[in-house]
Amino acid sequence: MVEGNINKPADPKNLTEGDKKHIPAIYVPKTIVAGEPFDVIVQVGLIPHVMEEKHHIEWIELYLNDTKIGKVELSLRKNKKAEATFTIKADKSLAGKESKLHALEHCNVHGTWEEFMTIKIS
Ligand SMILES: [Fe+2]
């Protein structure tokens, strides 16, 4: 699983601007069908994080039910926005159940942050 320290907002019900710039925002399609590929977009964050030489997002990672889907290393040259798209094909055994998405990102100044989302696969 995930290693190292993960930052948590001091008050999850009252996010600071810093929290909002680092907690990943996860976007999924309305309908997800087992066996059919779908895209998950992970954006950092709810307030877009900067991608500057001295301060930027280094990587974004995504898990589905603790299985690693992928890790995207961002490059200042190529990635103007701190976001990544992952394509998932959920196993047919997940049909009709709730599954858990877990996104992580790492900021070179502010460390690692995460977010979870429950999705329903049909
Ligand atoms: Fe940061």
From TrEMBL:
Spell out where the chain crosses the membrane.
Answer: none
Q: Which UniProt keywords apply?
A: Electron transport, Iron, Metal-binding, Oxidoreductase, Transport
Q: GO molecular-function annotation terms? A: iron ion binding; superoxide reductase activity
- Signal peptide region: none
EC primary class: oxidoreductase
The yes or no answer to whether the keyword Oxidoreductase is present is: yes
Q: What is its EC number?
A: 1.15.1.2
Q: Where is the Desulfoferrodoxin ferrous iron-binding domain?
A: 16-115
* Matching Pfam families: Desulfoferrodox (PF01880)
Q: Which family does it belong to?
A: Belongs to the desulfoferrodoxin family.
Name used for this protein in its record: Superoxide reductase
Q: Which organism is it from?
A: Methanosarcina lacustris Z-7289
